[in-house]
């Protein structure tokens, strides 16, 4: 997580953190990598994957074929704006050794809480939902999607000072 994300009310990475007991948050600092995350990445008994589109990334749906079946999978989702995420990746040599995945979402983002959203870009929670779907975990994807939509609905109601029943998402 970029250090500025933790204070944003619009942060959706916190939904992933609240939904999954095995989910962890590490705050990125350029000069001080998160030791626990670096250790997990280096652990040969864990199959780590970074979700980030790129020339060498594979579709998440193909991850199971590339996965070493005998070790647990570990997915890293960068929680930041796209500009911040690219900078974090570029300035974190310890991330460059991690295999990369990209998702292929079926629908456009439902996230409109921040300005400058580009077509094809998803928020952190939507990336998590898409990853779960592409990995075949449809039950958790459905529950997380409902939670995300309720978050959006509640945020919009609060911002517009309206009751939840009067807001269309």
From TrEMBL:
It comes from Veronia pacifica. One of its GO terms (biological process) is tRNA processing. Keywords: S-adenosyl-L-methionine, Transferase, tRNA processing. Residues 1-160 form the DTW domain. It comes from the Bacteria. Its EC number is 2.5.1.25. GO terms for molecular function: tRNA-uridine aminocarboxypropyltransferase activity. It is an enzyme of class 2 (transferase). Pfam families: DTW. The keyword Transferase applies. Coiled coil: none annotated. This is tRNA-uridine aminocarboxypropyltransferase. The keyword tRNA processing applies.
